[in-house]
Amino acid sequence: MRLATYELQGAVRLGAVVGDRIVDLAALSERDGGRQVPADMLAFIDDGAANLARARQLLAGPDAARESRPLAEVRLLAPIPRPRQNVMAIGRNYKDHVAEGARARGQAMVLPEHPVFFTKRASAVIGPEETIPWDAKLTEGLDWEAELAIVFGRRGKDIPKDRAYEYVFGYTCGNDISARDLQSKRHGGQFFKGKSLDGSCPLGPWIVTPDDLPNPHDLQIASRVNGQVKQQANTSMMIFDIPTMVEELSAGLTLEPGDVFLTGTPSGVGFARTPPEFLRPGDVVEVEVQGIGVLRNRLVAAERR
Predict the structure, then answer these.
(1) What is the tens place of the pLDDT at every residue in 206-222?
(2) Could you tell me how many helices (H) and strands (E) the chain has, helices first?
(3) CA torsion sign, 58 to 261 to 12 to 292?
(4) Whole-model pTM?
(5) 83-116 burial: b if 16+ Cβ within 10 Å, else e
(6) What residue spans in the chain does CATH classification 3.90.850.10 cover?
(7) Burial of 268 (0-12, 13-18, 19+ CB in 10 A)
């Protein structure tokens, strides 16, 4: 199932994407008169198993078409427009990306022994087609990073590898937009500020549930800037697989329903190119993950207040 958050006539709704149409699940449940489905993605995830079962029942019923409309008539938002907590992420999770970073810095390649975790501010999240602000006074080094994102569906701590997928609600596309100069020069090499600027965490276009994406470790993943391919890889190339990441991340740390986790980016990022390439106003950057869809955003010059 593909679940999307969208805006229609000023109201934010939750819908199921079926082909090129979107079905208003809350309105459909009201029409049906049975168990009500929330119109909010976080509330839906909080009772995910029951809400998914109800949504499948409704979509198979005779009234689904009456509560649907063309996708082109609505504005898609980030599936979770404002996560309850920071978006979590892993760095250096593709061997070729580790290698290109080492070359760019003139260092020997050393693969990580353990996952390298960091976070991005929840306020950095934007949706498909929303604009990424570019502030020349703050950064000259905005870079792209195509990523498969996990949305967790259950609270859990100290989760063993063999139970990791029990906690996954679904998957979406993520773009870990990174201000490389802030990240590497201005703030001591730490990731947080350079990866948390407003608009630096595009997510979308929707969440795909595991029944429609049974093998997240065999998906083509790519990024494009103005239609030119920059990254092209497969999620099978991850250094740490999803069960390992979930086990390590949840050790001593409680994951909550609706938490979002970015699983790393492959090679082809801008700072490691010769010469380096960075995003500029007017650029259109896309992330595509097989089985999910395309996440597209345009850069615009930011206005300082």
Answers:
(1) 999 999 999 999 999 99
(2) 6, 19
(3) negative
(4) 0.97
(5) beebbbbbbbbbeebbebbbeeeeeeeeeeeebe
(6) 87-301
(7) buried
pLDDT value of residue 187: 66
Tally of CB atoms within 10 A around 149: 27
Whether the CB-CB separation of 18 and 4 falls below 8 Å is answered with no
| Percentage above 70 pLDDT, the chain | 99
**Where along the chain do the CATH 2.30.30.230 domains lie?**
2-76
Question: Which residues of the chain, if any, have pLDDT below 70?
Answer: 187, 304-305
What per-residue confidence (pLDDT) applies to 185? 74
pLDDT per residue as tens digits for the range 183-196: 877 767 778 999 99
**Which CATH number applies to 87-301: 3.40.1370.10, 3.90.480.20, 3.90.850.10, 1.10.1200.120?**
3.90.850.10
Structure tokens at 273: 């190119």
The class of domain 2-76 in CATH terms is: mainly beta
Query: Per the structure block, which two tokens stand in for 83?
Result: 């996560």
